[in-house]
Amino acid sequence: MGEEAKKDVAQLADQLAEGFTALSGEYQALFDQQKQLESKLSWAKQQYLDLLKRFTPSTLSQDHITFLQDLERVAEEQPRARLNVVDLLAQGDDVERKSRAVVIRQAEVAAAALRAPNEDAGVRIWSGPQADPQTISSNTQTSSVSSPMEKDFTALGTPK
What segments bear the compositional bias annotation Low complexity (predicted)? Predict the structure, then answer.
């Protein structure tokens, strides 16, 4: 039984490692996409401000700059909803991302299985300050009187 448990743990660890690799790849793709979008947004904002300076009076230009600053402030203050990224990956059109989502889900299941306490594995401490909590199974439960012969020799009350 111990050898089988080691194989199960090794398999769960492998799934966890594969999930981490898939998650790392997805993170890198999203990070690259974010950098690209930030670059495009910065370029578009700079183009807009350059055009604004050329074709409007200076007072109107200052109003637009304060307007843009207010937009940035509002965007920072908005709370971001927590999205399940794995579900979003699974719903996409990209086959590679869908397969990453499957691997990540398997890794989540493996991580949960590794975190779950396994009552059969390991050594139990029966007494002392570090003793494991006792779980009484149905076969180990005994009543105070278990047989007719015992009834004859059992006296109720306290010992003297």
Answer: 135-147
Using CA atoms, how far apart are residues 103 and 55, in angstroms rounded to an integer?
54
Place of tokens 């990209």: 94
What is d(CA 107, CA 113) in angstroms, rounded to the nearest whole number? 10
Contact 90, 101 (CB under 8 A): yes
Q: Sorting pLDDT into bands at 50, 70 and 90, what band is 149?
A: low
Provide the token pair at 72: 């940035």
Token look-up 């908005």 returns 78
How large is the greatest C-alpha to C-alpha distance in the chain, in angstroms?
Answer: 111
Angle at 122 between CA 119 and CA 123, to 5 degrees: 105
Q: Give CA–CA dist 18/29, Å, rounded.
A: 17
